[in-house]
Amino acid sequence: MIRLVLVDDRAVVRRSLRRRLLLEPDLQVVGEASTGGEALTLVEHLAPDVVVMDVAMPGMDGIEATAALRRVVPQSVVVLLSIADDAQTRGRAQEAGAAAFVHKSGAIEGLLATIRQAARHEQT
Fold first, then answer.
1. Alpha-carbon torsion 92, 55, 90, 99, what sign?
2. Residue 23: CB partners within 8 Å, gap ≥ 6?
3. Contact (Cβ atoms closer than 8 angstroms) between residue 28 and residue 1
4. Long-range contacts for 65-70 (Cβ within 8 Å, ≥24 apart)?
5. For domain 2-119, which architecture applies?
6. Tens digit of pLDDT for each residue in 9-54?
7. Can you tell me the distance from the alpha carbon of 21 to that of 59, in angstroms, rounded to the nearest whole number?
8. What does the domain layout of the chain look like in residue ranges?
9. Are 43 and 76 in contact (CB under 8 A)?
10. 124 pLDDT exceeds 70?
11. Distance of alpha carbon 44 from alpha carbon 26, whole angstroms
12. Quick one: which of 85, 32, 30 has its CA closest to 55?
C-alpha cells in the first residue's frame, strides 16, 4: 500500500484527487494539507511514502516545502503538480529534491504511474 499526503491550497482540487485516488487499491490517502507549512507538520507526523503537492500556494510554495520536507522527512518523496510547465519551474523542482514533476492538465493515468514510480524510488 502506498501512503499519500495531498497538498493543495484549493479544497476542491484535494477533494477531486482524493476521490480518484481512492479508486486505486494500492493507494491510500492518509492526510491533506492546504499550505506548505501544514504539509511540513503533517508529513513529519505521518511519514507517508509520497507527497503529492501543488507548486503554486500562498506563503511557502510547493517547491520551498519540498526542499524543507526532503531535509526533515527524507524517506517521503514528493511529486509536484503544476499548471506552469516551464524549464525554470522544473529546474527549481529538481533542485528542491522533487522525485517528479507532473503538469496538472495531464491525464490521471500519468499521475498514477508517476506516484507508483516515485514510491519505488525510480526516476521519472
1. positive
2. none
3. yes
4. 65/7, 65/36, 65/37, 65/39, 65/40, 66/93, 66/96, 66/97, 66/98, 67/95, 67/96, 67/97, 68/36, 68/40, 69/39, 69/40, 69/43, 70/96, 70/97
5. 3-Layer(aba) Sandwich (3.40)
6. 999 999 999 999 999 999 999 999 999 999 999 999 999 999 999 9
7. 27
8. 2-119
9. yes
10. no
11. 22
12. 85
Say how far residue 54 (Cα) sits from the centre of its chain: 7
CA distance 52 to 69: 12
Grid cell 501544514 is found at 38
> What's at 11, amino acid-wise?
A
Count CB-CB contacts under 10 A for residue 22. 11
User: What residues does 82 pair with on adjacent strands?
Assistant: 103
Q: Given a cut of 90, is residue 84 above it in pLDDT? A: no
Q: What is the pTM of this model?
A: 0.95
